[in-house]
Design a protein that fits this description.
mainly beta, 7-stranded mixed β-sheet
Length: about 120
Amino acid sequence: VQLQASGGGLVQAGDSLRLSCAASGRTFSNYHMGWFRQAPGKEREFVSAISGRGGGGSTYYSDSVRGRFTISRDNVKNTVYLQMNNLKPEDTGVYYCSASISVRRSPDGMPYWGKGTLVTVSS
């Protein structure tokens, strides 16, 4: 699986952004898709995930983004989205999309990563 993330940018606190991650491969719908982020000087952390067809499209969020971010997927377009509302300066970081055969909240051992897209939120 090859992943390509896009949609990052520079925004002000309170603004919204939508990230996209386009995936290659015919079996996209079977993969669990996730978003992680990495702030400068910090470890990569879980943001959100959505299960594949086998998991019924269940969604998962970190406590820091629950209620502000929404993950979704379009299995026809082979794309996963992260709608980010009410952005805060602490949301700043490089956002990475991921794919795996099981839902993972840890970046360790994640089999597929896309190149990151930078999100910068100014106060």
